[in-house]
Every structure is written in C-alpha cells, then in structure tokens.
Design brief:
Layout lengths: L8 E10 L2 E8 L5 H9 L12 E3 L2 E7 L3 H15 L21
Antiparallel strand pairs: 1-2, 2-4, 3-4
Helix pairs in contact: 1-2
C-alpha cells in the first residue's frame, strides 16, 4: 500500500467577523481520508490551539480566532499537519499517541 502523502495547501481564505475576530480556512489539494482526519485529531498539544480547535471537512480546514492570533493559529495548523503525517525511519506512519495505525484492506 503506498504511503499517504501530506496534503498541499492550494488556497487560504480569511474573513473578518467583526469584533476583532476572523474566520480562516485552508483548502487542500485533496480530501483527507478518515484515517488521516483521525490521526490529525489525535495529535497531542500542550497549549491551544489544539487539533480539536480546527474543523476538518473534506478538503477544508477552518477555524475562528482573534485577528491578532491568526498567524499563531496558522503556524499551529502547519505543526499539527506535520505531526499527523510523520513517518518513522522505515517509512511507516507513526501514530501521534504511540498507537499503531489500523491497516486498511
């Protein structure tokens, strides 16, 4: 089975909600599989924003935050994506919690 490759961001959108808040979204080049979404949400975070602060649906990952915090949230998303697609030296996907990924038929 070929290894899943990390998705690429093809578009970013930020909308001003007023009151110093923004709604942000990144559009990926492909839809994430159920396993990829599960791995994303299993990534441990010491502080916020954590993976559960982001909404993942198909090719879109969205979030709301204070306007001043938008760059920090965008960086946190990048870090979470990298961690959820991390591989060990043998090219095997590493589960964020130390659990083994469930093989798909």
């Amino acid at each position: 089975m070929p290894l899943e490759r990390p998705p690429d961001v093809v578009r970013e959108k930020t909308d001003d909600l007023g009151g110093g808040r923004v709604c942000c979204a990144v559009i990926l080049d492909r839809e994430l599989s159920r396993g990829e979404i599960a791995r994303f949400y299993l990534v441990d975070s010491v502080e916020r924003p954590a993976a559960m602060d982001f909404d993942v649906a198909g090719r879109v990952i969205a979030w709301e935050c204070r306007k001043d915090d938008e760059p920090r949230w965008r960086l946190a998303l990048e870090i979470l994506l990298v961690k959820s697609f991390r591989q060990d030296g043998a090219g095997k996907m590493v589960a964020p919690t130390g659990l083994e990924p469930v093989p798909r038929p």
